[in-house]
Design a protein that fits this description.
The protein has 394 residues and is an alpha/beta fold. Helix content is 39%, strand content 13%. The protein has two domains: 3-20 and 267-391, Aspartate Aminotransferase, domain 1; 22-262, 3-Layer(aba) Sandwich (Aspartate Aminotransferase, domain 2), CATH 3.40.640.10. The protein has twelve helices and twelve strands. Helix 3 packs parallel to helix 8 (250-284) and helix 8 (250-284) packs across helix 12 (367-387).
């Protein structure tokens, strides 16, 4: 490895956050620099109305990305808030109709956390385990549905292993049994096609920074939002139909809208790139023995790859990979020492979990980046196996 490459940062943690697209940044700076566009969008004067027009333009851009009515989209601070509002708000609103809720054990903490809270509030939660490739067993889902089941929440693309759930079938089951269906689509919106005129999803969470937009802004789709099926979880204003109060961040929303518009035009190109990078990655890594994929071989998003090298010490591996930016599990869990719950639910033991690494690509990732990343990874794995050869086949 050359001296220049030794300290070259290569970012392969797109599942945690995508780099903000230059066009998005430009649109946000233009807004911030516009001396006539800093008004509060709730103000009734001309500057306030102008700000609201820009917000509605962005709302329209985002709605078109998912083929939804723009009146059904409200802005939030991100997918975490959207998930909390969708799950807690709908569960409490519909509590007279039943207090049984269903989700999966492999959901992001932004989903599992609200369900933990609702359990303490007297709701009953059924958490379904996936099969060994991370997919939900549809037959198992049908078995646990009860007369008092009022909400089911299943994420679209898993943030750690890239598994894609059969959202269409799950949503149809919910619709046929008059059960609200919420989907955490933070990892899928802007990456794969979502048509909410066709998919009977009631609540869908979106995060701008997962589709090359700014951090700190997201949205929640609420089907027929004018009927308001949610109780607000924050109070203090009439913005966003009284469901989500607070002054709207104009520059972030404009950036979100531009990111959504770009995603529509680049989605096919991005998908081809992700598949090419995925194929190239697995072709190059064949030189290593005893490397295993965590997740599904079939129903998976190609831009997220989670692999394990059994017997390798995970902490030592990450240190040897520096300055390569990859992850072990979700970024939300990275500051604690707990093994990945998602990988544990796939049936992996502690040693297998801690030897796992997630590579997740962006539209800026190149084959040269993969060459660099795998050079670092293969060297690190071989070094650790050489130091502890007895661990290689554990």
């Amino acid at each position: 490895m050359s001296e220049n490459n030794r300290f070259k940062k290569i970012y392969m943690d797109g599942a945690a956050t995508m780099p903000t697209d230059p066009e998005v940044i430009e649109s946000m700076f233009a807004c911030l620099n516009d001396k006539e566009s800093y008004a509060n969008s709730s103000s009734v004067h001309v500057s306030g109305r102008d700000a609201m027009q820009k917000i509605e333009k962005a709302r329209d851009q985002i709605s078109k990305l998912i083929n939804a009515n723009k009146e059904d989209l409200i802005f939030t601070s991100g997918a975490t808030e959207s998930n909390n509002l969708a799950i807690i708000g709908s569960a409490k609103f519909c509590s007279d109709h039943g207090k049984h809720l269903i989700t999966m054990t492999t959901e992001h903490k932004a989903v599992s956390g609200p369900f933990d809270y609702l359990e303490k509030e007297g709701f009953e939660v059924t958490r379904l385990r996936p099969d060994t490739d991370g997919l939900l067993d549809i037959k198992q889902l049908k078995k646990v549905i009860r007369e008092d089941t009022q909400l089911i929440s299943i994420m679209h693309i898993n943030n750690e292993i890239g598994t894609i759930q059969n959202i269409s079938e799950i949503a149809s089951i919910c619709r046929n049994q008059d059960i609200l269906f919420h989907c955490d689509a933070a990892q899928s919106v802007g990456k794969i096609s979502i048509d909410l005129k066709e998919l009977p999803i009631d609540l869908l969470s979106i995060s701008a920074h997962k589709l090359y937009g700014p951090q700190g802004i997201g949205a929640l789709f609420i089907r027929e939002a004018h009927k308001v099926k949610l109780l607000p979880i924050t109070h203090g204003g009439e913005q966003e139909m009284w469901v989500r109060p607070g002054t709207l961040p104009l520059h972030q929303i404009i950036g979100f809208g531009v990111a959504a518009k770009l995603a529509m035009t680049r989605m096919r190109q991005d998908q081809i790139l992700m598949q090419d990078l995925n194929n190239y990655f697995f072709e190059k890594i064949k030189v290593l023995s005893d490397i295993f994929l965590n997740g599904s071989n079939e129903s998976t998003y190609p831009g997220i790859i989670n692999i394990r090298a059994p017997g390798i010490n995970g902490e030592s591996l990450l240190l040897l990979l520096e300055p390569l930016c990859v992850a072990q599990g979700s970024a939300c869990n990275s500051k604690n020492s707990e093994p990945s719950l998602v990988l544990r639910e796939l049936g992996l033991n502690d040693h297998e979990i801690q030897s796992s690494v997630r590579f997740s690509f962006t539209r800026d990732t190149t084959r040269k980046d993969i060459d660099f990343a795998l050079e670092k990874y293969i060297s690190a794995v071989n070094q650790l196996r050489k130091n502890h050869p007895s661990n290689a086949n554990e």
